[in-house]
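re: the backbone from monday

yeah here it is again, tokenized this time
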């Protein structure tokens, strides 16, 4: 799942990180650098750097970007009216305890920081004074918001009639979210999911700018779209699932039992993605059945040893001929397997390294293997992906033989990077 290592909620977000990139002096940490050296070079204190960057410790990494001066936003001449709506003196990566503090308590602390009572009403929103040459799109871009959000905040605003000096309500800053890129994530997909764009991701992350964004890397973004907190815990035969996500409906499959169709956010997304990949390849559609994944909270369920932490799914095979209601869970001869579709589905998980194990009857493996080979999949790849032809008891390949898997396949997805308590 995508795990928010730091979700800063409304007033807890200090503006520094959003605008630092554009407005404040920034340095990139070099190998061997220390906070004290950087502070000395920039002529500021270690405490200031920590505050500007929301650092809780002195720990820094090479390649990390650090703000080493006040943001332009804090200068009095800035166009943006940063009337103190937020927790002044709170660092951007406020701890989760602070976020979960009662609202009244948070507001009290704001009230202390805000000296003028009259400003209280405005604390929840930012305002922007329009200057000549501004467009709504430009303002939205500059302030990490969208035209739609601005229009929602300002119902009376006519987008074609904005004049210098007008005041526009920009609303609260978007919460900051740090997430770990998972296998199969593309920047485009992440951007779409969180309602931002790739340029934004590049602006906010040096790893993206430098082409170092790959699975396992943390990236930061600002979004109002909630991040799934699902988490697979423990091993699959003795584990549980926190904040499981119900597998969404899809025209490519039928879900047998809804209350056993919960997985991690990754599991459900990876299943949907694979069925979309099949759809993209074939003009006509076949429907398969999906039986159990996990219970909403994981743990032991009837008929299964595994399926306990939201990473296992039982999925029917694509038959050559299926009734319109969908291919059932029926024993299948290799000759009856719709190998092209089946391979398209499997290959999606294989090439994105999303599957830890896929149980498929050995005879069906043979047909898949020959098909993939004909399609030009290199031998080295096939060796890694599929047990056949090395014998059904050889512990090799992602796809392996397991008894009773001639009427359905069982896919076990890898532990998401961010689910640190998940075990193989
Ligand atoms: Zn199973």
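seq for it, each position gets an aa:
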């Amino acid at each position: 799942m995508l795990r928010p290592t730091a979700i800063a909620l409304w007033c807890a977000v200090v503006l520094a990180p959003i605008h630092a990139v554009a407005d404040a002096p920034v340095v990139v940490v070099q190998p061997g650098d220390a906070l004290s050296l950087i502070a000395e070079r920039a002529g500021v204190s270690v405490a200031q750097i920590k505050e500007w960057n929301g650092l809780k410790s002195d720990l820094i990494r090479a390649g990390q970007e650090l703000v080493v001066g006040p943001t332009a936003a804090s200068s009095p001449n800035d166009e943006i009216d940063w009337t103190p709506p937020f927790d002044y003196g709170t660092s951007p990566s406020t701890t989760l305890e602070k976020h979960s503090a009662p609202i009244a308590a948070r507001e009290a602390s704001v009230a202390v920081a805000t000296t003028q009572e009259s400003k209280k009403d405005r604390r929840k929103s930012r305002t922007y004074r329009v200057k000549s040459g501004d467009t709504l799109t430009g303002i939205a871009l500059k302030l990490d918001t969208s035209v739609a959000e601005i229009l929602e905040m300002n119902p009376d605003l006519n987008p074609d009639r904005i004049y210098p000096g007008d005041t526009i309500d920009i609303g609260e800053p978007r919460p900051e979210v740090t997430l770990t890129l998972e296998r199969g994530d593309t920047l485009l997909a992440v951007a779409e999911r969180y309602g931002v764009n790739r340029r934004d991701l590049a602006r906010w992350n040096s790893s993206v700018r430098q082409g170092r964004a790959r699975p396992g890397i943390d990236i930061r973004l600002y979004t109002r779209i909630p991040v799934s907190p699902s988490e697979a815990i423990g091993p699959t035969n003795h584990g549980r699932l926190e904040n499981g996500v119900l597998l969404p409906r899809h025209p490519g499959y039928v879900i047998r039992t809804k209350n056993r169709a919960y997985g991690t956010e990754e599991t459900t997304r990876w299943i949907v993605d694979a069925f979309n990949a099949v759809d993209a390849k074939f003009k006509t559609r076949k429907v398969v059945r999906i039986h159990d994944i996990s219970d909403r909270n994981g743990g032991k369920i009837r008929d299964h040893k595994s399926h306990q932490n939201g990473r296992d799914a039982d999925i029917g095979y694509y038959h050559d001929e299926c009734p319109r209601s969908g291919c059932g869970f029926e024993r299948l001869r290799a000759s009856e397997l719709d190998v092209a579709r089946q391979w398209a589905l499997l290959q999606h998980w294989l090439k994105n390294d999303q599957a830890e194990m896929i149980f498929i009857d050995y005879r069906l493996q043979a047909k898949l293997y020959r098909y993939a080979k004909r399609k030009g999949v290199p031998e080295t790849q096939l060796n890694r992906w599929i047990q056949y032809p090395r014998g059904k008891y050889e512990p090799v390949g992602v796809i392996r033989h397991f008894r009773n898997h001639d009427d359905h396949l069982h896919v076990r997805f890898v532990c998401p990077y961010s689910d640190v308590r998940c075990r193989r």
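The chain has 14 helices and 17 strands. The chain has a mean pLDDT of 81.
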